[in-house]
Amino acid sequence: MALLEVRNVTMKFGSLVANDDVSFDVEKGSVVGLIGPNGAGKTTLFNCISGFYKPTSGKLFFRGQDVTDMPAYAVARLGAVRTFQVVHPLKEMTVLDNVLVGAFLRGASAEKAHEVARECLSLCQLEEISDRMAGGLPIGYKKRLEMARALATGPELLMLDEGMAGLTSTEIKAAVEIIKGLQKRGITLLVVEHIMEAIMSVADKIVVLDGGVKIAEGAPQEVVNDERVITAYLGAKFSQRLQASRGGANNG
Amino acid sequence: MKARGKTEGKDLLWFGLLGVLAVMPLIPGPLQGSFTQHVMIQILLYACMAQAWNILGGYCGQVSFGHSVFFGIGAYGAGMAVVKYGMIPWPGAIAGALIAAAVAVAISYPCFKLKGHYFAIATFAIVEICNRLFMVWYWVGGALGLDYSFSEPGWTHFVWYESKRGYFYGALLLFILVFGVVRWIEKNRLGFYLRAVREGQETAESLGVNSTKVKLMAMAVSAFMAALCGAFFAQYNYRVDPPMVMSLDMSMKFVLITILGGLGTFYGPLLGAALLIPLQEYSRALLGGMGGGVDLIIFGLLIIVVVVYQPKGIMGIIDGIASKMKRSEEGGK
To answer: With respect to CATH, is domain A31-52+74-251 assigned 3.40.50.300?
Structure first.
């Protein structure tokens, strides 16, 4: 049994179909990348999994439990915690306080929560600024704060929604290292990411969405060579040219 | 280490303040005057009311204009026990507080489904409804209200006639209770959850916080405390009637004192009350002849000035000065 099972999830907003019959599994201990062009329905799917939306049809199972109809906080308590693509810092609270909110999920003891929060801050390299107000931080820090806060809840499945968008290449490298560190700690990750090279180096499996439909699923190398994926990302014309040039290379 | 130093400083300030307040009525001189003592009692009482409101409005960010209802229920709790049933006021005060908390949860459960300003507007309506209801409710004395008859002065009946010192210590006990509870909340999980819900309900939910439950808890604690303040108010005035306690005027005081002092801060409600109440009482004493409402005009002007100049209230001004001093100190090094 996979840790997270997505079964035929369809999400409609009026006549718009944001997710159409999407199914895949996230195995315990793996890193799964969820990619696709803009408007492919990645964030919508995230919202369904994390309990912010109730899918129009289909089922979601986490740790074998049906979480389709659970409210967001209950899903988080079960151990599936997400971050937001558009960062949501608790502005008028310090960085430490932000992380403490997450840390209190696993117990009411203030002492224990501080301990957990400190650990997560150091893991995400935020100790230096722990006393600063979260609202005034630069974006790179805010992104890491999202991660630290989610991490403090002690999740079994951590879902990162474009945690690296808008970061510099050095920051991306740091973020990739953090993700690898999390995997070593036994945390399963489901990562929405636009930046291909970042996701390729960490993911065990990649799921590709386009227009709300799952068009490919598999190991990173398989997926990047998939014709439909190339078409989705680069357009049909480029895909044909690529195929042609490959064909030519093979012949020659 | 740094964090510990900070907590010790906070403890020192809190216990120091309590010490000063405890000896204040014993100092001979101008503090012995009956009017001065009246003002001091009012400051403590209104500070408690504002702090009770602050739990919900400041820390949790849910602006309620309905707190005079809970205040009133507490006042009627004590009043009914004394006047109707000839009992001591204590069980009435506790019962009133429990009923206030229950009523608060019952009316806010649907109201919390309303977002932002709509919650505030809904609470407005509740004050009017309860005011009218109590006006015509014969069992609780209707428009005439409940008048206390003479009872033995002292702590048992919680009335004093000759000196106000008993009331002062009663108000101080209330102050220790209300502020003590908020101090505890601030340091513990509930305090972090309250602020998380204020700063972003979605984010809080994503971190496993049941925001509806948190808001209802804030409401219950807040209403319970407000009702205890109401019980004290009835005991202090020897009477209770609907316009005295359940009015928008009274509701506004909960809100304005907190805003003036600093929303969501621990000392804000005390500072707000310490500034507004003397102004209110002295202007009423001096300008009372000009007709009612002069104190409210001053009240309003002051709020406008503070909110324009520093939306975070007096605490915001103090923080600003403190960080400026800290910076110049660091610059000096």
So the answer is: yes
